Every structure is written in C-alpha cells, then in structure tokens.
Amino acid sequence: MSTIAENIANVRERIARSAVSAARDPSEITLIAVSKTRPASAVRDACAAGLRDFGENYLQEALEKIEALSELPLTWHFIGPIQSNKTRPIAEHFDWVHGVDRLKIAKRLSEQRPAELGPLNICLQVNISREPSKSGVLPEDVAELATAVAALPRLKLRGLMAIPAPAEDSESRRQPLRALHECLQSLPMQLDTLSMGMSDDLGEAVQEGATMVRVGTALFGQREKTDDPATPPATHTKTEDTP
Ligand SMILES: *Cc1c(COP(=O)(O)O)cnc(C)c1O
C-alpha cells in the first residue's frame, strides 16, 4: 500500500531520471500536486511530506481548502477552466492561474487582483493538439494574446500551459509537448514557465522542457470518475490497493 510520501518519492524519481537524461537540473522543475476532489487532510499530509504547490480545478472546492489550510505555507494554482463571473475569487485567493486563454479573462483578473498582493502569475493555455471542443488559444494566436496580457498591470505573464490530447506511444505524446516548447520560444518576450506533464506523460514533458508538472493520480491514487476533461476514463490497471 503506497503512502503519499512513497508516491512523492516515486514521482520525484521519475522527474529526476527524465531531467538527467535531458541534461537538465531536476531542481528547475516544480511539482504541482493536483488536489482536486481530495479532502483538505490529503493536502495537509502532502504538505507534511514536503510538497508546497497545489493545483485545483473547481473553484468552490478550492476556496474551502485554501481557507481550511490558511496556516500552511502553500502556493495555490488554479488549473481549471475559468468562467468570467468567477474571476474575482480566483484573483483574490490564488498565486498562479494556468488556464487563461482570452484577453477578457486576463483583464478581469488584473482589475480584481488586490493591491496588497503581488502580481498574479499567469500561464496562457494553448490548444496545442488543436482539438475542436477544447479550451486554449490556438498556437498561431498565442503571440498576440501574450503581448496584450504582458501589458496588464496586476498580472505577471510567466509562460504557457497545455493539456495535450491523450496518446498511446511515447513519440506521439512527445510531439505536442515539443510544439508547446517551440511556441514558448517563438514569443516576442522571454518567459520562464512551461506548465505541461501529468501523471502519464510527466517523463516526456520533463525531457521536452517542462518547468512545472501537474500531477494528481500518481500522487493521490485514482480519482472518482468525473466529467473532468483532463480525467479520461481509467484505462490502465491500478498499481496500488485502494481501501
Ligand atoms: C486533473 C488535472 C491534472 C492531473 O492529472 P493526473 O492525470 O491525475 O495527474 C493536471 N492538469 C490539469 C489541468 C488537470 O485538470
């Protein structure tokens, strides 16, 4: 039976192995623990085991955890889709937002970021696999959006984020990750963050230049099935016992 500490050690080992194979320093890569659907107690345990960065998709659930755990030194990342009428609590309670794909949302986040907090860190979400029904700006439109977002006063544009279409083999997983890296390098400004890589493709993502990986299942076990687009129905075999 794996404990959270063992799972963290395994994920860190995967990150380190991939980093070394790409001649990168593993300390350049931030592990974001995706705690959506997990109770606050799971976040507390992960914090005790050394994690500080947590990613949440569902606003109401996230706000409850942020409030309950306010005494812990945590960095909170909003990684879900953003509705324009929900920007204020995001601007007030998070440190990072990874899913910005429209200027309207960015403007609202900038206007609503409280003056006493530092600028809100932003990654633009790119629809790197060009899936018709998925969120994200298309690669050819990223530069224009990045230029506009970089000019907003209460935001700090940090980089790009993507959720590539699922793929069976390693080379097909790698292609969109490489494309996101190239997209970052093609921008008119220098940015330091590539948010890509989840439980199944974090090795490829690190090899292709990820600086933040967003990992849920490999740390906390399988989630209950939801309609979350980033949670395809479980097709792989569980590797651990669940109670
Ligand atoms: C759920 C989610 C993840 C984590 O996915 P796992 O496969 O459980 O590691 C990462 N990023 C986003 C945007 C998510 O919604």
From TrEMBL:
Domain Alanine racemase N-terminal: 28-223
Segments for region (Disordered): 220-243
Gene3D superfamilies found in the cross-reference section: Alanine racemase (3.20.20.10)
UniProt-listed InterPro entries: Ala_racemase_N (IPR001608), PLP-binding_barrel (IPR029066), PyrdxlP_homeostasis (IPR011078)
Modification sites for N6-(pyridoxal phosphate)lysine: K36
Homology family: Belongs to the pyridoxal phosphate-binding protein YggS/PROSC family.
Function: Pyridoxal 5'-phosphate (PLP)-binding protein, which is involved in PLP homeostasis.
Entry-linked NCBIfam families: YggS family pyridoxal phosphate-dependent enzyme
Protein name as catalogued: Pyridoxal phosphate homeostasis protein
